Amino acid sequence: MCGVFGIFNSKTPAEDTFYGLYSLQHRGQEAAGIVVADYNKAKKKTLFKQHKGMGLVSEVFREETIFETLGGYAAIGHNRYSTTGSSKSTNNIQPFSLTYRSGSLAIAHNGNLTNSRALRRELTELGVIFQASSDTEIIPHLAARSREKEPLHQIYDALRQVQGAYSMVILANNQMIAARDPYGFRPLALGKKIDPLTGELSYIVASETCAFDIIQAEYIRDIEPGEILLIDHLAVTNENPTSIYLPPSKRKARCIFEYVYFARPDSFIFKHSVDKVRRNLGKNLARESTIEQQPEKKEITVVSVPDSSNTAALGFVRESNKLNKPARFEHGLIRNHYVGRTFIQPGIHSRDIKVRSKYNIVRGVLTERPIILIDDSIVRGTTAKMLIKLIREADPEAIHLHISSPPITNPCFYGMDFPTKRQLLTHMFETTGNEEEEIEKIREYIGVDSLKYLSMQGLLNSVPSFENETCSYCTACFSGDYPIQVNEATTDKEEND
Amino acid sequence: MCGVFGIFNSKTPAEDTFYGLYSLQHRGQEAAGIVVADYNKAKKKTLFKQHKGMGLVSEVFREETIFETLGGYAAIGHNRYSTTGSSKSTNNIQPFSLTYRSGSLAIAHNGNLTNSRALRRELTELGVIFQASSDTEIIPHLAARSREKEPLHQIYDALRQVQGAYSMVILANNQMIAARDPYGFRPLALGKKIDPLTGELSYIVASETCAFDIIQAEYIRDIEPGEILLIDHLAVTNENPTSIYLPPSKRKARCIFEYVYFARPDSFIFKHSVDKVRRNLGKNLARESTIEQQPEKKEITVVSVPDSSNTAALGFVRESNKLNKPARFEHGLIRNHYVGRTFIQPGIHSRDIKVRSKYNIVRGVLTERPIILIDDSIVRGTTAKMLIKLIREADPEAIHLHISSPPITNPCFYGMDFPTKRQLLTHMFETTGNEEEEIEKIREYIGVDSLKYLSMQGLLNSVPSFENETCSYCTACFSGDYPIQVNEATTDKEEND
Amino acid sequence: MCGVFGIFNSKTPAEDTFYGLYSLQHRGQEAAGIVVADYNKAKKKTLFKQHKGMGLVSEVFREETIFETLGGYAAIGHNRYSTTGSSKSTNNIQPFSLTYRSGSLAIAHNGNLTNSRALRRELTELGVIFQASSDTEIIPHLAARSREKEPLHQIYDALRQVQGAYSMVILANNQMIAARDPYGFRPLALGKKIDPLTGELSYIVASETCAFDIIQAEYIRDIEPGEILLIDHLAVTNENPTSIYLPPSKRKARCIFEYVYFARPDSFIFKHSVDKVRRNLGKNLARESTIEQQPEKKEITVVSVPDSSNTAALGFVRESNKLNKPARFEHGLIRNHYVGRTFIQPGIHSRDIKVRSKYNIVRGVLTERPIILIDDSIVRGTTAKMLIKLIREADPEAIHLHISSPPITNPCFYGMDFPTKRQLLTHMFETTGNEEEEIEKIREYIGVDSLKYLSMQGLLNSVPSFENETCSYCTACFSGDYPIQVNEATTDKEEND
Amino acid sequence: MCGVFGIFNSKTPAEDTFYGLYSLQHRGQEAAGIVVADYNKAKKKTLFKQHKGMGLVSEVFREETIFETLGGYAAIGHNRYSTTGSSKSTNNIQPFSLTYRSGSLAIAHNGNLTNSRALRRELTELGVIFQASSDTEIIPHLAARSREKEPLHQIYDALRQVQGAYSMVILANNQMIAARDPYGFRPLALGKKIDPLTGELSYIVASETCAFDIIQAEYIRDIEPGEILLIDHLAVTNENPTSIYLPPSKRKARCIFEYVYFARPDSFIFKHSVDKVRRNLGKNLARESTIEQQPEKKEITVVSVPDSSNTAALGFVRESNKLNKPARFEHGLIRNHYVGRTFIQPGIHSRDIKVRSKYNIVRGVLTERPIILIDDSIVRGTTAKMLIKLIREADPEAIHLHISSPPITNPCFYGMDFPTKRQLLTHMFETTGNEEEEIEKIREYIGVDSLKYLSMQGLLNSVPSFENETCSYCTACFSGDYPIQVNEATTDKEEND
């Protein structure tokens, strides 16, 4: 996963992009970069400048002097997710910038192409060289080989050939182009801002609307699945960016896991409030829950794993009480604010120091009480296991782990950085394939008194519905129902963007 | 304010102290240091080693190689609070270590002495030189001039001469000494840990019990007001540290603001759970609140300023509902996890980017609703003002700001880093001295629809009571009732530790 | 200018390359990188790993842990020269590594192509994208489009199409390839090393032989102009790397400025000792010098600008004395060892602090004496001017500046980072074109009593001659005689490698 | 060893001190610090500000923003030598700054006290605490206990009690004081500078005159042995600093090793040019040398270990030729400019990589020639041994090592950081005490064909003589003749400043 951001017609495009990327930091912590388009008077054309590096946005752009060299009128930026292996190379830091037949191009991409292997093979056969290991580089290669003259149509030609998930922002000479795949896997939103002093209009494109909030921009609408949007100075003057559209796909496939875990709760994605969806997840989980207060026993305490499950937990408690199943919300776990990327763990007293450094338990609200612990999902299960061990130190009466999504049973080929099938907790134990048996093994492994996942139906009931769509979401990680066929070769995937 | 930590008889004292300081990071972010006591076989005596620096614990001890040079059997550590002016000097980073008549001494100190000016004057008249500007240095000077032979009694002699607030941990050759002033202003707790492999016993002293939790140590008891505790190898063998006591003060004066804001909610201080006290503050605030749901209007939404006011807000909601004043708790503000000390703000789009970078609003739970915003206290009011402006963007029906403590009207001379009287929000406006009028001015300045502070009685009802004590808490910042007379000279205080 | 290094069949290729680059640091201080070839057992093929960054070799590879991730059996490395403008981008740090039709390729290049603009144009028309601004990227593009199957022949195909100066080392899957342009502009040498423990043979390629010395390798011979050398495991077994050859050029064009200034004196380049050539330059300068001791005056003192002109100065003095023109060599200027890349100059007391921070004068050997100051060349003249001002403080009787090469009158299009024609000191003054007049203007500007350049004939007499070659050297910067025609478009050159 | 610098009445005292320390960097590379005196208008008195850190001057003051906080009218600075053990602590970085009875004091000290143990013992008995392990801290303690009112007389009182070597600069409120011990062990010079714009006079004090040169100040005279000089605003107005004098010592004891190795050749110390003395050392070494060109053999080549022995080698060659012993000076060793403090040595191919990274050999001038290698001194012999091994790779006919000083046979108790007696090369071999036998053992160990040390008489003939002094130099390291009795306890010295 990654975060993308772009702004056109700003006096301070690099600074705006910095704040945008900062607010999208949760989408990728490994690397960050900004490419700025500036009009060079001497050369009478737009030139690109860039700054990129490994680390958090605030680390890569630690020195204010960097911004002095990044003046211009438009910029795009990218946050890269932490992945394993070859991606550690600085070659993979986005935006990629390059020159080609029609001038300069820079691209920031969130997603994963499913036919990248085949396309790479075809392109290399034609003599193309690849300098990074990510899918993204394929797109400018295809665009550069298009017979079209306008970057917009070159990009169109390129995107017609790729399959998979992508939301991207591109600088092409003096234009900004935003595109989203026809399935609409990843979010991408369009915003605008009126400069309070000059009245000048800026257009902004970002993975999530929280990036608009931080720079006080306004959400206009989503970039639609299959849309390729062009923003240039004319579009600013007319207040009317123009779009062309890729051939529609048979269905839509918005990533449902963005709502479950990935997006920030204060964002709107796919046109709807993430916070509201998470609340629904909690409500539906409450409806499905069988844990009830026992007569003569203490009230059930609902604790969330902060901060990602807070909203679901609140929804859970509210619905529970509505259903006459008394439960109280408590902050039983506190998240440490000082955990940073550079946190060392000298001596490693015990294997659980990592969880101990990140979370603290509030004994008073846990001790001798029946606890329902709400978490959004379980991937490998190692953190959950250690967290339960930590909570046990407060000596609760029981720990009932409730997950606000179904079990993750399949890898993602559309950009989410899940491990391979083998590493998923759901495949760790040898079972007869019976689901109940599997969940029992997981319960035992994690060490809780009971384990409850939200049902698939509960999940689907929680997310917004879209009119005139037979299918709106990709639920492949939970259901194995992959919207785009993925051939075998691709399944031992290594890289996501 | 500062955090102190000490451990005696550990195989990894520097690592333990690192984790202890890490968990006490909220008590001081400006600087950190560790002094280790190691037995030098060649010299047949204990020698001290140290590492200190400006910044967070994880920044000062960023490289694991540091720990390779810090082997030993005991260690003390210190987190320094960010203060203004001369304290920026590296000379002020604690623990202070020194040699004197009886050998080596290192000291880590949390508190503020009220007779430091007089003592400094007396000592300098006697030819003493001071290398730092903090109060702390006075104590080893006094100890070094004592006629006693044992460090424990030298420290006793020194502490009899100082007045004010202090909780401290000292390494004196092969002994560790912990001391707390007779008023008991600042917390200090004693813990122990049995090594799971060797069965060896370690004693630990820390400002808050959260430092015990992270290294899986156990809370034994508080260091009592006026207690000077000696831990050496004999104490370990006998499982019995010994204590001597300073002459008792007329009253006790535990800092009530530690409960209101400063301490971590998962800690026990002054023998009681901080979380529980904060919940009481919320409950009492609910009892005093006059904001009620209006007929035909939306339910009142209670939002806390995360994370410090979360618990009070929960207590508020629960009590409110008990009193049949319906209110719902919501996460209307989200705290950004990536705000670090090194956060730059290029371009400064607007004055509120700082608040915008730290908090996000969740529009859905705020829009068109009457909001009760719970915060623990207001010092200068600038952050509160900008936060309200941010929340206004979600267009709530009304914002009722409820503070879970009374107005801060007086500076602290016992270690809390409040500004001078003049800079306190309560003294910013010219009034006739009428309290209602003052609060109205503050309400207007901050820009809320109503402003409610917890009453002093409400505050006192929320904190634990101690038997046989006429007065247990220092409430000077709220009441002006200073437990220790502070002469004029000291009142234009510059330095706290 | 840049430095290149490669080693094949070593247990520690990254470490060897580090030392090699370290010894070639004078050839480029802006950036450094290493790419390692390692056999991956799981994937049963050679994979590349890399580390690159801006700064000195010792800065980029500051942490030893970097080397832990760079195990393998072969490696190439590159030092990049400090240039202006777009090259600051990390995109331009070499070696470039990439994947293409035939697998993996990495390239480290020293030189400058003269038909790069035309080739870029042609390639981009064909749909090629360029990610860096340097010439180097052209070569892998050409190789990737070759119909040949073997990397060696692909490289051959590529190099047949490029014109200009290049010495390069390439990793192509499990092979190392070294190539030098048919004119032989830049040096490139082949060496070998027998591991003292295992008896294993390593082959090494480097810009200068000083890189062999530091790792105790042995110089075998030069890579010949036009030679493309292949080293693989078979070549190691047979102790016989194989070569193919590019079509010969009409003449050779070894860069004479490498001997004058650029190469390290302890290196052998173009098969001959740099030290010896510099000594010859000094001798010939002495023969041409007209400065002689005046009767009844003090002996002439010869001072060199350390360290680059030391050898020439020694040669000058020796020859001078042979010719019965008494002169004594003195260390009148001392070079400061602590000047680093990160040297700041707060306050800037005066414009000459930079020269003052780098050189100190030894008054005793300068005062009241006639000085002959030997420097290797003058480019812009600013440093020389300030250095003379500094020497004047010692109050010498006279300063006669002798330059051990002719005036630089033309830009270099083959890799030397000279400024444009306009910025050269020789073109700064309006003259009638009369050379004597020009030199007088320069003398006046720099502020010396007399100024003497070595004649072109003196220069040519100083360098080694090669049998059967009509022309062996490129002297374009001094003579304007460009071995390869450079079309107008290229002359406003921006980039060198 | 250390370097000290002070400037009074400057508009840019911190910047001036930065450049002064930069030019004195050779006197200490471990740590650096600057203390500035600034007049605070609000408090109506001079306050001190400081910045200190571990590393080179250019590392400690890497950021220009540091200087923005260091405005004032006077400053002192200190370079600390790299020593072993406890000195690594930041507590030991000078200048020490402190407050005491009479105000503020800051001190920068070069030297070593011989009665520090006794004084520390006495002071600690009186209740004094020591925060650093260096001698320097003793002086302010003694000053603070003086009954005098004026800092100048307090310092006088303090210095009357200490014995040993010291040259120091002190800031005392609004005065600067410079002092040198009665023996005059360490150099200390007085300079002045007229601001070219304002005509304002600044006074400067520095360890060596090279610190005057860099800021274009002028050398006035030495601070005399036993002199305590006071510079304040009155002294500036009158152009007349005033002095008081310590009781004279029986003899003088200027450190002769400063001339041999330590000081910079372009400095004047003890009123004389270091370069000139080094040249004399070379001349006298030539007179004593028995190596002569053999008939029918190649001319003898004289090579110096750069840069410290360059001047001696030149003197040697000139004298040799005068004496009709033909010899030619050559740059046979080149010193690498890129060796920095942070140089890592991954992999450590061989034990001599350190010497290989620092020096390169120029084969052409060494091969098959008889070499006289000039070095200034041998301490432990490890570097010399490896350097010889490196030179042997060029296959010289013979290597005759000539040392321009006598064998070091005794430790220094006056500030030079020699190892203990046991670690000196001269004590490494068991001999009958016969000097010839000892030198033969050393020759064999280092691996040279012959080894020649300058005689003591040769040394004494090389240094300037002072009128009316029976004894002017300390030669203890060569002769064991210690000017100040050192009691046994002190002899296992640990710390120098």
From TrEMBL, chains A, B, C, D:
> If you read the UniProt record, what top EC class would you report for this enzyme, in one word?
transferase
Please state the pathway this protein functions in, per its UniProt record.
Purine metabolism; IMP biosynthesis via de novo pathway; N(1)-(5-phospho-D-ribosyl)glycinamide from 5-phospho-alpha-D-ribose 1-diphosphate: step 1/2
Provide the alphabetized UniProt keywords.
4Fe-4S, Glutamine amidotransferase, Glycosyltransferase, Iron, Iron-sulfur, Magnesium, Metal-binding, Purine biosynthesis, Transferase
**Which reaction equation describes what this protein catalyses?**
5-phospho-beta-D-ribosylamine + L-glutamate + diphosphate = 5-phospho-alpha-D-ribose 1-diphosphate + L-glutamine + H2O
The record's similarity note reads: In the C-terminal section; belongs to the purine/pyrimidine phosphoribosyltransferase family.
Stated name of the protein: Amidophosphoribosyltransferase
- Where in the numbering of this chain does the Glutamine amidotransferase type-2 domain appear? 2-234
MF term (GO), any:
amidophosphoribosyltransferase activity
Q: What does the record's cofactor remark say about binding? A: Binds 1 [4Fe-4S] cluster per subunit.
CDD domains (UniProt xref): GPATase_N, PRTases_typeI
Question: tRNA-binding as a keyword?
Answer: no
